[in-house]
Amino acid sequence: MKWSEVRKLYPNQFVKLKSLSSHIKGGQEIIDDMAVISPVPDDMATKELLKSKGDELVYHTIHENIVLEIRQDVGLRRFDYNEN
Questions:
Q1: Which secondary-structure segment (H or E) carries 5?
Q2: Entry pTM
Q3: Angle (CA) 8 49 9, round 5°
């Protein structure tokens, strides 16, 4: 399903989606095709987002496109300082 169709079916609300196809452009991931899992009440959007796994996301239909910023994983380094 295309985002324009989702916006028509679920106007002005959050929806939980599964990304089916996307492309990367300029450090952003743009979702092209998706499957709607369910509409999400406003007060549950953050909770549903935190429960989302893999290619699932929660997004509001007020946005014209689904554009996600790609972040590089920041690794934590651990230094062991041994006194001899």
A1: helix 3-9
A2: 0.77
A3: 10
